[in-house]
Every structure is written in structure tokens, then in C-alpha cells.
## 1
Amino acid sequence: MIVRPEKPEDIPAIRIVNERAFGRTAEADLVDTLRRNGKAAISLVADDDGRVVGHIFFSAVTIQSRETELMGIGLAPLAVIPERQKQRIGSMLMGHGLRRCREEDHPFVVVLGHPNYYPRFGFVPASNFGIKSEYDVADEVFMVMELREGALTGCAGVAKYQPEFNEV
């Protein structure tokens, strides 16, 4: 198993991974739309001997307040095909993805996800920094991780995703 950047020939398999992992097309549609619009910041696949079994995707996010605007990165989605879940593939994708985010010098990453899964990677409720999602979601499911220590100091505000998130 290797984790690598997506290639054009992976796109149909990535769509299938997202559809199967979530049991619907919304996440696959979002990834396709963001990619088509040039908004894919980081897109990695878990490749098991030539078969794409997992996918992680990041796109730009902005935290806006009255005083500041801070650009960072948002994780959405993270997907593994159902028969390969609970085999640490998602953890491998997270590790590689977060490393790439740091290498590309993103100051923070946000995620809207399961409150029992993402904290193991270092995510904390975004409300700890005074950050809210632009979406009406429970506090415990909207999380953030500083990729640079102190990056979110004094940066309370609203996290805004790419407009495509509202289109699919």
C-alpha cells in the first residue's frame, strides 16, 4: 500500500471510492467540481497494488473576522471503500495529507467530521480558538489543527469554505 498524489487516470476510481464510502454522490460531486474549478490544493490516494482504495482531499479555507482574514486549508473528504475500512488506510492518508499541508506551509487545517475520529490526529474543537463554521453544525464536529504553533492566536472568526461547497 502506498499513498501518492492523484493522477488523471485515478479520477474515475476516486469518484467510486467517495460514492461507496459515503453511500451517496454528494462528496464525489464536490471533489469533481472543486478539481474541475482548479480548487484542489492536495489530493492523495491510497493505492493498493494499482487499485485506489482510499482518498483524501484538501482545498483552501479562509477564517474571516472584522479585523483579519487568514488563509488555511480544509480537509473534505476523507474516504476509504467500505471493505477496507478499519485497516488504518484512513490514518495513513491523514498522516501523508497533514505532512503535505505542513510542507506547503499551510498555517492550519479545519475539518467537519466525527468527533471521536479526528482528535487522534491532533484536531480540537475550533471553538477553542473562537472559530465557527459558516455552516450550522454542532460545536464538537467542527475542528481545527494548527500546523504552525500560534497560527490561530487572535484569529477568532468564521471559517469559509470554497463556494463549491454550497453548490453540491
## 2
Amino acid sequence: MPSKPAVFVDRDGTLIQEVNHLSKVDDLLIFPSSFTAVNLLKTHGFRVIVVTNQSGIGRGFFDEWAMRRIHDEIQRQMDGAIDGFYFCPHLPDAGCRCRKPALGMIEDACDDFEIDMSGSWMIGDKIIDVETGHNAGMRSAMVLTGYGTEHRPLLKQQPEVQGHDLLDAVNKILELM
């Protein structure tokens, strides 16, 4: 598999509408602009990899099977355009290697795919998403959907790109290429 840059995309509030501890497919709503954004990334040679903290599993609100059903539905609705889904089921204070802004999910994706990290990006709606990008040595983008508007004034590290939504962020990333 040839090395390609990736865009690591946060799930809740970035790719899909924020639903506190989303546990049912019936509550899933993909932002309409996400379809175009993901297709643009694919057209420009990026892998698209979802990385998501899912502490609802660790809290017992839902199980891994319920989360996988949601990922399967996202993949179905996105016509199979997502290259991979990686998740952290642990509680925020668990001290695990995978919970963003730690790099476990990024490292696991790099084990599974040949990824050109120098051309890769992290996009999300929270401070931890921007921190994840910086911690991994890649550029980051913040969207103002989800928690983005609330988190933007609290940023200590600024992302290279800010966008109204995923599509706006992707268009700004592509302008930098």
C-alpha cells in the first residue's frame, strides 16, 4: 500500500452532529456538508480516518457493539469513503495511551496504513483535537460546529486552519496544498 497523507477526523461535532453519548443509530445525523468534504479529501489523495473518544462505553452508557453499529451506518451513508474508524472507550482520567490528545489511535492507524504524516492533518471541534494534531507533529484544523465555538477562545495552541464546518476546513486545507 503506497504512503499517502491522512486527514484524521473527529467524529462527534465534526463529521456528525453532536449527541451526548450517541448510542443509537436512530439518533445519528451526519452533517450534510460532510459528504462533500470527505469526497474532496479522497479526490485529492488523502486517507480519511475517524478518531473518536467514546467514554460512554467506559461509563456503561452503551457497549462497543452499539458504537460499531453507528460506525457501520456512517460508513454506509458515506458510501464506504472512510478508510478506518479508531476509538478510545476509556474514561477521561484512565491514563490510557489512546484517549485524545494522546496518540494511541493515530499510532494504531499508522500501523494499519502507510501514512505520510508530514502531509497529514487532524480536524476536530475541541481543544483536544488541536492538541492531538500538534502532539502528532501534523497540522490541525478546528471546526466551529459541535463544541468548536465554545472551545475556540480557550485554545492555547492555534490550529493552522479554522472553518465554519468540515467542508469549510477541508476547502481551506486544499487551498494550502
